Amino acid sequence: MTVTMVAFGLALGLCLAAVLAAAVSPPERRSLVVGVGTAGSGVAAVVAGVAAMAGSGFSLVLPWVLPLAGVRLALDPLGGLFVAVVGGVAAVAGVYGIGYSGHGLNGRAVQALLPGFVAAMLLVPAADGVGTFLVCWELMAVTSLLLVLAEHRRRSEVGEAGLWYGVMTHLGFVAILVGLLTFAAHAGSDSFAALRSAHLAPALASVVFVATLVGFAAKAGIAPLHAWLPRAHPEAPSHVSALMSAGMVNLGVYGIVRVGADLLGGGSRWWWPLVLLLGAVSAVYGILQAAISSDLKRLLGYSTTENMGLVLIGVGAAGMFAADGNRALAGLALAAALLHVVNHAAFKTLLFTAAGSVLHATGTRDLDALGGLRPGMPVTTALFGMGALAASALPPGAAFVSEWLLLQSLVHGLPPSGVGTAILLPLAVAAIALTAGLSVATFVKAFGVGFLAKPRSEAAARATESPRTMLAGMGLAGLVCVLLAVAPMVVLPGVGAVAGGVTGAADPVVRGAITLELSTVAGSLSPLLLALALLAGVVAAAGAVRAVGARHARRTARLWDCGGGPLTARMEYTATSFAEPLQRVFDNVLEPEDDVDVTHARESAYLVESVEYRRRVPDRIERRLYRPVVAVVAAWGRAGRLLATGSVHRYLGYGFYAVTGVLILLAVTR
Amino acid sequence: MFGLWRKIWRTGRVAEPAPARPYTHQSPGSRVLAGSVQVRHVDAGSCNGCEVEIGSAFGPVYDADRYGARLVASPRHADALLVTGPVTRNMAEPLRRTFEAVPAPKVVVAVGDCARNCGVFAGAYGVAGAVRDVVPVDVEIEGCPPRPEQIVAALRGLTGR
Amino acid sequence: MIGAVLQVIMVVGGSPLLLGLMRQVRAKLEGRAGAGIWQPWRDLRKLFGKEAITPRRTSEVFRYAPLVLFATALMVAVVVPFVTTRSAVGPVADLFAVVALLALGTVTLALAGLDTGTAFGGMGASRAVTILALVEPTLLVAILALSVRVGSTNLATIVSSTLDDPGRVISPVTLLAAVALLVVIIAEAGRLPVDNPATHLELTMVHEAMILEYAGTDLALVELASAMRLTVFLGLLATLFVPWGIATAATPAALAVGVAAFAVKVGLLGVLLAAGEVFLAKVRLFRVPELLAGSFLLALLAVSASFFLA
Question: Which among A124, A457, A497, C227 is placed 20 to 30 Å from A216, CA to CA?
Fold first, then answer.
C-alpha cells in the first residue's frame, strides 16, 4: 500500500461517495455535498498524481471486476501527471460548482454525473490494460455527454451540440477500439506491459498508430476533427466546460503519447511530422476562429483547439528528435508540451469559470452585448484579466514559459537536422508565432470588449458579483496561474522527469531555481525576475511621475466626445468590429458569408427603403468536410425510412424473410 | 524617387527667416508652456478664411512648428485652443466642452475679427456671441482674416521663442 | 551593472533626442526650418507639468497602462546589450523575451484604448493588435535565422559571436534577416508606410487613436515610452547587425566607446529612416498584410539560407 495507492483510492472513493450522496441528499444541500466531495477527490488525485510522478507508482490487477479481461490499474509518472492535472481542475470545478449549480443545475442526475465524470477521467490515465482503458474511456465519454446535455430543456442548441459530440466521440472511440484491439490481438495479451514488449510489423504498427491517432485527436479537439468542441464546450454548464476543456482534452494527448511513444516505442519516423503538422494546423486554425468569434465560451473552446495544437507540435517535435536519436532535445520538446498541458489546464479552468461567472450574472455569452463589467464584477474582471494574460503567451504569463521552451527546442533542433526537418521546423516556429500573435488579439478582444469600457446591454449594466464559492474556485485557479507563471521551476523538474522517462533522455531538462536554465543546450530565462522587474519598473515610473509632475492633481472629466452629445454604447467598438481587420486579412482561409438584402421603395426601384446586411463566418472545415458527409447520411436515413411504413404486417414480413434467408444461407454453406 | 530628390535639392529651404521676437504680454500658463505649445483648432462657425491662414501659418513658409507650436488631434493633448469664427448656437456647447477637455494650464486664442467680436455676423440669428462670451479668452488676433505672420507672432508669444 | 545604468540613461535621455533629430531631418527635407532636436524634450517637460485627466467610467487599466508601457520599454533598455555585453542580467531574458515584452507594451496600450469606450480607441486597438499578430511570425522566424548558427537566442551570445566573426554580417542569412526585421520594426514602431506618426486624421491613425484620451503626465509617459520603443527597436537592429563598438570588457574606455557607438549607430539609422519616410506615403491598412507577408518570406528565406549555406 503506497501513498499513491491510498490517495488514488481515496479520490475514487470520494467520487463514488459524492455520486451516492447526490442521489440521497435533499436538494438544498445536494450541490454543497457534491461540490465538497468532488473538490476533495480532486485534491486527493493531485496528491496521488504528484506521488506517482515522484516515482512511487503502483500496479494492480483486479480480475474479478470485469468479466474476461479483468481490471488492470497502474500509475506511472506519465499517468500521474495527467491524474494530477485532472485532479487540480476537478478541485476548482468542485468548489465553483457549489455556487454555480444554484441555477437549475441542482437536479439529482446532473449532480450525480459530475463526480462520476471526474472518476472516469481519473481512471483513464491509470488504466493499464486495453479492456480497462476502453471501458474507462467510454465511461468518460458517456458521462460528459450527459453533462453537456444538462441544460437541453432550456436551450435548443444544446441538443444539437450533444448530437455532434455524441456522434464524433463515438466514431473516435471506434477508431481507438479498432487500433487497440488489433494491437492487443497481435500482442496476445490485454495488459500494457505485454503490448510494450510485443514487436509489431512496421505496417501494422502504423495502422494501430493512425487509428488511435484519429480517435485521440478527435478527443483533443485537433483540426479537422474539432467540429464538436466549439459546440459542446460552450453549451455545457461552465464548470463542466472547464472539466472538459482543461481536463478531458488532455487525455487525447495522453493517449497519443502513451500509445505512440510508450507502447509502440516511437515507431516509424513519419508519424511524428504528421503529428507536428496536425498540431500546427490546429493551432493556427483554432486561434483564427477564436479571434473572430464573438461568443465568449465558443472563443474559449476554439482556443482549446489552438492550445492542444501547440502541445501536439511539441509532441511531434519530440518524436522527430527521438527518431533522429537526439534524446536530450526530445526530452526538452516533450517537457515543453507537457508543461503547456499543465499551464493550459490552469488558465483554461480560470477562463471558463470566469466566463461562467459572467454568464451567471448577465445571462449572455455574446461579447457584443457585454462590456462594462468592471464596476459590477471587480473580482471576476481581475481574474479573467489574469487568465487572459496567462493565455496570450506574454510575460509575465504562464503560457509564455511553455511556449518559450517549445521555441527553444525547435531552435536547437534545426542545425543537425535533415532537409525535411529544415523545412518543417521554421514553419512550425512561424505557426507558433502566428498563433501567439493571434492569441494576443483574441484575448485583448475577450478582455477589452467583454469586461472594459461601457456596458453594451441592460443585462451587462446590471451585473453583480457572483457568490463567494464561485469566486473561491476561480481564485484558486488564478493562484495556480500566477504560481505557474512566476515559479515554473516548482513543476518543471517533475514534468521534465516525466518527459525524460518517456523519451529516454538521461539528463534533467532544466536547472536553476529562479533562473530557468536549459541543461542540454544554451538558453536561459527568468520568469520571476522578469515579473519583479516589471513591477519595479511600474513602481519606479509612478514614483518618478509623482516627483516630477506633482504640480496639478489628477482630474476626472467627461469622456472626450468631440464636443457633441455623450457617446452611447452603440458607438463603441464591438467584438465583431474589433476582429474585422483580421477577418479581412484571412478572408481566403475563413470564407465569410455575406448577405445583403435591399428593399426598394414601392414608387421607384431607385429609392431604397432599407438595406439589411448580415455576415456570418461559419467554420470552413465543418462546411467543406462535414456537411457533405452529414448530407449523405441523412439521405440514406430518408431512403431507409421508405422501408418503415408503420405497417405491422410488413415488419412481420421482414422478420420472416430474414429468418428464411439466414436458414437458406446456412443450408447452402453447410 | 530621384525626381523627388532633385526637387528637394533644387528647392532648398522655403521657410522665411524668423523675424525678431515680438513683444507680447506673458499669458497665464506661460511658465509651464515655455518652449512648447500644442494647439487644437476649433472652428466655431468660421467662413474658413481664417482656416486657410492657419494652414498657411503651419505650412513650410511661415513654419510655426519651429517656435515649438504644433497642431494636435485631441484637446487632451492640447495646451491652446485656436478658435475661429463667431460662435454659432450649435457650436457654443461643443466649444465649452472642448475647453473643459483641455488639461490645465490652458489658454484660448481667438483668431480673427469674427472670433473677437462676431465681425460681419454680429447680431445674426444663428450666432451665440463672440468667443469670449462662451469661454475665457487669453489672446486675440485681429484681422479678417489675420495674416499668417500675425498668427505666428501670437503663437510665439505663447511659446516665448 | 554600470552598463545597465548607462543603457537606461542613453535610452531614456536619448530617445526624445532621436525623435527630435528625425523630425528635424524631415523638416529640412520639406524645406522647413524645424523646431530643433530638443523640441521633444521641451514637449515632455511641459506635459509633466500639466494635469492628468481620468475620463469617467474608465478602469484601472486606463490609469496604469502608461506605467506598464513605460516599464516594458525600460526593461528592454536594460536587457539588450546596446552598450556592453558584460551584463549581469544576460541570463534573465533572451531575444524571445524582448519581443514578448515589446508586445506586452502594445497590448497594454490597446487595452487602454478599448477601456475608454470611444470608437477611435477601439479602432486603434483593433488595428494595433492586428498588426502585432501579423508581425510576430516574421520576428520569430528572423530570430530563428539569427540564432541557429550561434546555437543560442541569448542576445549577448549572438553579439559576441558576430564580433568574433565579422564576415557573417555580409552573409545572405544576415542580410535577408536584416531586411525582414527592418520591415517589421517599422510596422511595430508605427512609422511610415504602416502608420503616420504625424497624422491628425483619426480615421487613419493606429497608435495615436489609442492615446487620444491621455493628457498631462499620462501622455508624457506614453510619449516618452513610444520614443523609447523606437530607440530600442532601432538599437536592436544596430546591435544585431552592426555590433561593432559594443563593449566586451568592463573598462571605462570600452564603455565610453560603447556609448558613443550606440549613439552614432542609432542616430544614423534614425536619419536614414526619416529621410526614407519623406519618399513614402502611408499605405492602406489592408495593404499592410502584403508588406508583412513579404517580410515573412524574406525571414523564411533567411532560415533556409542558414541551413543550406551552412
Answer: A497
- With a CB cutoff of 8 Å and minimum separation 6, the contacts of A330 are A317, A318, A319, A320, A321, A322, A503, A504, A505
User: Which residue did the predictor score with more confidence, A280 or C3?
Assistant: A280
Mutate to test the interface with A, among C69, C107, C173, C188 (most CBs of A within 10 A): C107
pLDDT at B21 over 80: no
CB-based burial label for A640 (10 Å; 0-12, 13-18, 19+): exposed
Per-residue model confidence as pLDDT tens digits over A453-488? 889 999 999 988 988 999 999 999 999 999 999 999
* Residue (of A451, A442, A447, A459) closest to A361 by Cα position: A459
Spatial distance between the Cα atoms of C96 and C111, rounded to a whole number of angstroms: 22
Amino acid sitting at position A30:
R
Taking the alpha carbons at both ends of chain B, their separation in whole angstroms is 36
Split at pLDDT 50, 70, 90, the class of A601 is confident
**Whole-number pLDDT of residue C66:** 95
Residues in B touching A561 (Cβ below 8 Å): 97
Nearest Cα neighbor of A350 from A386, A314, A321, A315 is A386
Contact state of C42 with B35 under an 8 Å Cβ cutoff = yes
CA distance C153 to C98: 11
pLDDT band at residue B23 under the 50/70/90 scheme: low
Q: Report the largest interatomic distance among the alpha carbons of chain C, rounded to a whole angstrom.
A: 59
Chain B residues in contact with A552 (beta carbon < 8 A) = 103-104
A524 with A517: CB under 8 angstroms?
yes
**Chains with 3 or more CB pairs closer than 8 angstroms to B?**
A, C
- Answer whether the bond into residue A378 is a cis peptide, omega within 30°: no
| Local structure of C62: helix, strand or coil | helix
Question: CB of C275 within 8 Å of any CB in chain B?
Answer: no
Residues 6+ apart with CB under 8 A from A431: A280, A283, A284, A313
pTM of the model: 0.93
Whether the predicted pLDDT of C141 surpasses 80: yes
Q: Is the pLDDT of residue A424 over 60?
A: yes
Question: What pLDDT does B25 receive?
Answer: 52
Q: How far apart are CA C252 and CA C265, in angstroms?
A: 20
Is some CB atom of chain B closer than 8 A to the CB atom of A562?
yes
Residues A458, A462, A463, A467, CA torsion sign = negative
Instruction: Tell me if chain B has a CB within 8 Å of the CB of A565.
Output: no
- At residue A498, does pLDDT exceed 70? yes
Q: Chain C residue with minimal CA distance to A550?
A: C49
Q: Is C208 on the interface with B (CB under 8 A)?
A: yes
Q: Which residue of C has its CA nearest to A554?
A: C52
Residue A434 has pLDDT above 90, yes or no: yes
Contact C126 A581 (CB under 8 A): yes
Prediction ipTM score: 0.94
CB-nearest to B65 from C27, C53, C215 is C27
Task: State yes or no: pLDDT of C281 exceeds 90.
Answer: no
C287 CB within 8 Å of a chain B CB: no
Residue of C38, C39, C41, C50 best to disrupt the B interface, most CBs of B under 10 A:
C50
Give CA–CA dist C222/C207, Å, rounded. Answer: 11
Interface contact A563-B76, CB threshold 8 A? no
Please check whether residue A122 is in contact with residue A9, taking contact to mean a CB–CB distance below 8 angstroms.
no
- DSSP type of residue C84: B
Nearest CA in chain C to A288: C133
d(CA A350, CA A348): 5
Mutate to test the interface with C, among B77, B97, B100 (most CBs of C within 10 A): B77
CB contacts of C276 in chain B (<8 Å) are none
Rounded to whole angstroms, what are the CA distances from A651 to A264, A637, A639, A641? 49, 18, 17, 13
